[in-house]
Structures are given as C-alpha cells and as structure tokens.
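Re: beginner question about structure tokens

> Can someone show what the tokenized structure looks like for a real chain? I only ever see the sequence side.

Sure, here's an example I had lying around. Input first:
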Amino acid sequence: MIHAKLGVGAENSGKLVAKVKEMAKEKARELGKDIVLVDGSPGIGCPVVSSLSGANLVVLVAEPSVSGIHDIKRVIELVNKFRIPSCAIINKADINPKQTEALVGFMQGKGVTHIGNINYNENFTAAMTEGKTIVEFDDRPLAETVRGYWQTILKLI
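And the corresponding structure tokens:
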C-alpha cells in the first residue's frame, strides 16, 4: 500500500495523487504485480481526475441515498467523458430498495455494469476497528460476496 499524509489545511491536489500513483506503479513493477488499485476520493475535482488518469476500469461504489445518487451521477458523467469502462457496486443497498432499483436503472442506462449489491452490515465497521479488510475479518457469506465481486472486476479489466 502506497499512501500520502496531508497536514491539516494542506491542499489535496491532483499532483499529490499523481505522485502516489507513480510510486505505486514502481512498487508494483518491483513486486511483479499487474494491477494497481487506486482508491479515489469522492467528488469530481482535481484529485479524482488524477485518480482516473490512465485507468483501465473504474469501480464505482454508490449508496442509495439522495446525496449518494447525486454524487454518483456526477462521477459517471466524468468517467464517461474520459471514456473509461466502469462498473458499480451498491453499498448499503437495503437501506432504500426503491432508490437502489432506480440507481441500477440509471447506471445501466449510462453503460455502467452493475456488479451487485452489498447490504448494510456492521461487520464492516468492526473490521475497520480491528484494522482488517472484510475478507480478513469475516470469512462467511459477506467475504465470499466480496471475493466474487473481485473476480468479476478482474474479468472486466
């Protein structure tokens, strides 16, 4: 994992993201890895544009809330402008099934592949508290779902 630490009030620019990505690519080459996964910030500003630069696939994670839907629509516009293939996972899909259904329809209309949904689960918070991924923390159906989505993402790349 390659990351940067910003000081309080420091500007989060695309230049910082580009530098971190370059360091990650170098590390991947050293380790003989074929994939660099970039966790982009929310929104559509310079850091997001820098995160998208050179991407082969964008994995969008959306929540079926009013603000979540508003934000994902803006990001999809940006991703489509750059002509980068994209797919999406809806997080906390069970909190608003009607909005989840509308979101799936919208994304499909914009050419975004819907990989699947993940319902609200407190194990995600518990895993973060322990400094683990959900796959490390929960080896039950939730981890299997995430593993399955990862396999789908690999096929899309």
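Each token stands for a local structural state, so reading them left to right follows the chain. The chain has one domain: 38-156.
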